[in-house]
Amino acid sequence: MGTVVDASATTNTSKDVCQNHLGDKKVTVVFVLGGPGSGKGTQCANIVEHFGFTHLSAGDLLRAEIKSGSENGTMIQNMIKEGKIVPSEVTIKLLQRAMLESENNKFLIDGFPRNEENRAAFEEVTKIVPEFVLFFDCSEEEMEKRLLNRNQGREDDNIDTIRKRFKVFGESSLPVVEHYNSKGKVKKIDAGKPINEVFEDVKGIFSLLHEKAT
Ligand SMILES: Nc1ncnc2c1ncn2[C@@H]1O[C@H](COP(=O)(O)OP(=O)(O)OP(=O)(O)O)[C@@H](O)[C@H]1O
Ligand SMILES: Nc1ccn([C@@H]2O[C@H](COP(=O)(O)O)[C@@H](O)[C@H]2O)c(=O)n1
Ligand SMILES: [Mg+2]
Question: Could you tell me if the ipTM is greater than 0.90?
Answer without folding.
Answer: yes
